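WARN no homologs supplied; continuing
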Amino acid sequence: MSQELNGSQTPTNPAKEVVNLKRKDYLNWDDYFMATALLSAKRSKDPSTQVGACIVDTQKRIVAIGYNGFPRGCSDDAFSWSKPSDGISTDPLEHKYMYVVHAEANAILNSNGTSLVGTRLYTTLFPCNECAKLIIQSGVKEVYYMSDKYAEKPTFRGSKRMFDAAGISYKRYTPTRKQVIINFDEIIQEELNISLDMKALKM
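OK structure emitted
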């Protein structure tokens, strides 16, 4: 016959306390997504400004990434990376602005038809007015950015005006840690050490 357990009694088989060995210094979600945008920026060949973007859905899944660069088929060596202030040429056809696809636009185009409605975009630089149009039209609802160094330029002031009108929230992101180090050699060295340990055990 079963007996009810009251406050003065203890169970005959108390649950064993679990020792939690979970690592404490893991990346939080926002740092992870912004770090992905920063890593994407490393792919850019732009000599002055490398920008990366990462789009995340409501389930915290990365659905697209992008960086600033030339369109497919337009060689990074054949088209100019110069800008007017470089003093190399006064011909607009010799300036990068004619050809570069921005990181945010590339991320949206790289979504391969996935719906971006309700998503969040992480970018290393606040979007220009042209990218803002694409962000709004694609359904992105939140924008997190690291730098807003061109905030006073009309093209970026126009972005904020459109975001405000369309109800797109935007916020400068402050990371919780100063750096994220990706060390390929650490993995290689770890495998080497394990291999040496295994050899030593067999001796």
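Helices lie at 29-41, 103-109, 129-138, 154-166, 184-202.
OK
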